């Protein structure tokens, strides 16, 4: 799945399959300007910053069990969001410090370090990387991902895929080659 935020005409948090199909709104009320999003892949939670409502909130992948982690004026200065173990990590754009927020007790906030310039934050750790099983976009014997000549996108499951073409090309009638 692909998770993303939008605050155009109607602010929301959405999810869809990697090929863009099965687009679903998971949060569409009491939300104004969601600017950053992070996933807890193990427990299947979606966290986001809303800089207009000055809050950090969480829901499960279906948009249920919504909770506010923390609220306050400091939220409007946060950019980027990552989750690891018991904490959320973000950057305060005012003083360029990395903040650690306890995701179970939003009042426990600590500044960890200062940076020269940052707009995003990611946590890379072996435990956050899920094991990859065989999937529909694996390279075939001819070196083509999922048998697609250009781009292979996973669809509704790891067993299904959709082929797409680079800009300027169209998908052939075989659904795999680009012309």
TrEMBL record:
Pfam families referenced in this protein's UniProt entry, alphabetically: FXa_inhibition, Ldl_recept_b
SUPFAM superfamilies named among the record's database cross-references: EGF/Laminin, YWTD domain
Bilayer-crossing regions: none
Any GO BP annotation: canonical Wnt signaling pathway
GO terms assigned for molecular function: Wnt receptor activity; Wnt-protein binding
Cellular component GO terms held in the UniProt record: plasma membrane
Ranges for the LDL-receptor class B repeats: 1-43
PANTHER family assigned to the protein according to its UniProt record, in alphabetical order: EGF-LIKE DOMAIN-CONTAINING PROTEIN (PTHR46513:SF33), VITELLOGENIN RECEPTOR-LIKE PROTEIN-RELATED-RELATED (PTHR46513)
Official protein name in the record: LRP1B protein
Protein species of origin: Dasyornis broadbenti
Biological classification of the source: Eukaryota, Metazoa, Chordata, Craniata, Vertebrata
């Amino acid at each position: 799945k692909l998770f993303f935020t939008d605050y155009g005409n109607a602010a929301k948090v959405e999810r869809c399959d990697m090929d863009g199909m099965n687009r679903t709104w998971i949060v569409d009320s009491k939300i104004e300007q969601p600017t950053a999003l992070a996933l807890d892949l193990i427990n299947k939670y979606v966290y986001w910053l809303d800089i207009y409502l000055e809050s950090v909130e969480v829901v499960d992948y279906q948009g249920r069990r919504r909770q506010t982690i923390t609220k306050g004026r400091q939220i409007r200065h946060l950019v980027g969001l990552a989750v690891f173990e018991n904490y959320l990590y973000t950057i305060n754009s005012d003083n360029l410090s990395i903040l650690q927020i306890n995701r179970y007790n939003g009042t426990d906030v600590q500044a960890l370090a200062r940076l020269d310039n940052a707009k995003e934050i990611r946590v890379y750790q072996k435990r956050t990387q899920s094991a990859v099983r065989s999937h529909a976009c694996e390279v075939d014997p001819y070196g083509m991902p999922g048998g697609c000549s250009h781009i292979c996108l996973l669809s509704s499951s790891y067993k299904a895929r959709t082929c797409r073409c680079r800009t300027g090309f169209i998908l052939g009638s075989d659904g795999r080659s680009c012309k």
